[in-house]
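Q: Can someone sanity-check these two? First one:
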Amino acid sequence: MEYKIKIIFIITVTLMLILNTSYAAILKIKVTSFNRTSQEQAKLLIEDRKAGKNIKIIYKNKDLITKVSNEIDKKNDSVLEDVTKIIKDAMKEGIYLSKHLCGKAIDLSKREGAKKFISFMKNDKSLQVIEEVDHYHLQFKSECNEEK
């Protein structure tokens, strides 16, 4: 139940930001990513890899991200479809490369309001806050296939 309340809170904040309400203006928070499809995840990984980012250090499942990275390195015309298939196949087995794929993660830009929000959320034991280069990544500690 607690998980559902928190996810409702995050969704509410996200919707408020999307709708550009006064709350968003006060906090100056910008949500840069929430739910992703397998194709959106694949596209992001391909773009990051092409930009020279070491995607292997970002993701926890080293076997899966290595498989994805190797597929991207082949540089064939069907790379988006091939990487999407790898991600989809893993999801069918209950393996999620990113918690964005199951709605248990949200990215916030590093604006001042986000810093205040993050300092507040860091006290929440059910959330993990990861500071990345250009954004904050918040994710629930429960696994994608867990219902709390």
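And here is the second, same format, sequence then tokens:
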Amino acid sequence: MRKRSEGIRALAGAAPLAAVLALLAAAFAGAAPPAPTPASSAPPPAAASSSTPAMTAGDVEAFLDGLVPVQACEPRREEAGWRDVQRRVRRLRRRRRSLLVATAVLAALFSTLAAAGQIGSFAPHSKAPHLLVRGTLYTQEHERAGSLEIELERATIVVGRRVRLLRWRLPSDHGFRARWFLDLARVPGAGLRNGSLLVAGAPQRLCGPCGARASGEVELSAAQATALVNDEVTFAGATQDAAAVSGAVGLDRSRLQRGVLCVQGAKGCTRIYTGRQ
């Protein structure tokens, strides 16, 4: 038994040597050594990860641009649009400049013509109740030359042996405002060098030069307005040839409107007359 045990140990020790000799013999003979297949309890290897990297925001944008490519002419369109805006701005500036120049020229022309008496002022007729004074103008040859109308505002009258002029809602230190309208359609040359109202020999200038259809406003004192409603005023003017044009002006009583003025504390009321609109 002892010899058998020693023989087994000798064979067990010679087994590794025999395996090494077998490997060397196989190498010299050209055969591939058999791969060892050791048993392993490790889990099977995980599947290889995908080779495609994760997409970033830039990759998404590039992808969308690929689907809808940017047109090469878009920058040109933007540049053309900006040039169009600049052209419109320049066009508006030219129009505005032209309008300003035309306005200045018309204003200068209007002033020149007005100073030369070719056109008159454009005072409108009064829309408030007013006293109307009018007269017919004649030349030295007693030919009709035109007419003059004066609208006296904020004034009432009391008719008696002499017409008395009263103020209507007008401070005592203010004069009477009047609008005048001169029509010289029958005057040779259709204009006057000057035109004035004569009140007790004192002139109250209306215009100079005066156009064929001139109009304007003038402020009269209480004495001048009183003389006007009492038919004590005349108009005097001269044509370009120094020919006189004149005429008496008087109150148009057909346009009076009757009223009554009652003052507190007075014994009775006073009958007054105002003008119509």
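A (reply): Looked at the second one. Residues 74-115 form the longest helix (42 residues). The radius of gyration is 59 Å.
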